[in-house]
Write the structure tokens for this entry.
Amino acid sequence: MFAFAACGKEPPSTPSTKVDSIVLSVGGFNFTAQLADTRAAQELAALLPLTMNLRELNGNEKYGDLPRALTTDSRRPGTIHAGDIMLYGDDCLVIFYETFQSSYRYTPIGHISDHTHLKEALGTGSVEGLEIKINN
């Protein structure tokens, strides 16, 4: 408990019932993502609804800072797939819109199965106002 007080961070919380999917709304499109079976995914769900601004990186991903740190269980996925949603570090949400190889470590958050228009919706620069909510 002292470590959280010293860092100014509260312990992450999880929803009272397990959340299976979320909806991301951006650029006039809605994308449904199935959540990974990780504590971080449920902690993200507890933060919802959430509006985020994202920045472009490497022509294959958008990333943005979460309002609080999440529990990490990072691993090297090897192949990142278009539609993957990952946590980099403990408070950086990353949405991938291209498939590529990576040696970086991420905690899985979820995956957008139908990512047909994801690249188009995210555009080429920064993204303002990505909305994330629980899929009812």
The domain at 19-134 is CATH 2.40.100.20 (Cyclophilin). The chain has one domain: 19-134. The two ends are 34 Å apart (CA to CA). Strands lie at 21-26, 29-35, 50-57, 61-65, 78-80, 84-88, 92-96, 100-102, 107-112, 127-134.
